[in-house]
Amino acid sequence: MTKRLPEILEDMRQAFLGRKAGYGWKQGAADAYGATVSEIKDLSGNTLTGTAEKFNAALPYIERAGYRVTEIEVGLGLSPKLTAHLMLEDVISEADQEDLLLETKEKKMVNTILNTLFKASNARTKLKFRRFHFTHLELELSILPTVVLKFRPNGKPDTPETLPAETGPTPLPTE
């Protein structure tokens, strides 16, 4: 049976303290690399699949909370993540927010998402930037869930700007 990364790191720590004879840094590094690669494969598959399923269950509640999902990103790596881009379409009353939170009390992930969205929406109203306005937010579901509030310059569209058409290579200056 292969060891998991925390067990390997503990073996390395014990070897460093002189409590594990015959366990060298070379072996520890090789074990750590193998375990990390193995756990990344496992995390990327199992963790993301579970997160996607929980997000799908939360989607109707997110919409009832006044948000529209415009995009979903999936990040693969040591700490995989799912990032949902949300547009606030309707601000619901505090009573409706409380009702949604009460309704989802037993659905921990859904309740956490809604609670986070309501807090972010409240924070959004308190943030004022000169020449910038709120456009949307990103809800990142990972080991440490995060909400990112997005602001764009006033007078700019709320959609990403398009790049100018290519006109060919820029000529080199001549002397």
Indicate the topology.
Layout: H1 5-16, H2 25-64, E1 67-75, E2 81-88, H3 94-103, H4 108-126, E3 132-141, E4 146-153
Antiparallel strand pairs: 1-2, 2-3, 3-4
Helix pairs in contact: 1-2, 2-4, 3-4
Structure commentary:
A four-stranded antiparallel beta sheet has the order 1-2-3-4, covered by helices on one side. The chain is α+β, with helices and mostly antiparallel strands and 175 residues long. The chain has helices at 5-16, 25-64, 94-103, 108-126; strands at 67-75, 81-88, 132-141, 146-153. α2 crosses α4 (108-126). It has two domains: 5-43, no CATH class; 48-153, no CATH class. The N and C termini lie far apart (69 Å).
Distance between the termini: 69 Å
Largest sheet features: 4 strands, antiparallel
Unreliable stretches: 159-171
Based on helices, strands and strand pairing, what is the structural class?
alpha+beta
Spatial extent as radius of gyration: 24 Å
Overall 3D form = elongated
Number of strands: 4
Fraction in helix: 40-55%
Number of domains: 2
Mean pLDDT: 77
Determine the strand fraction and express it as a percent band. Answer: 15-25%
Order of helices and strands: HHEEHHEE
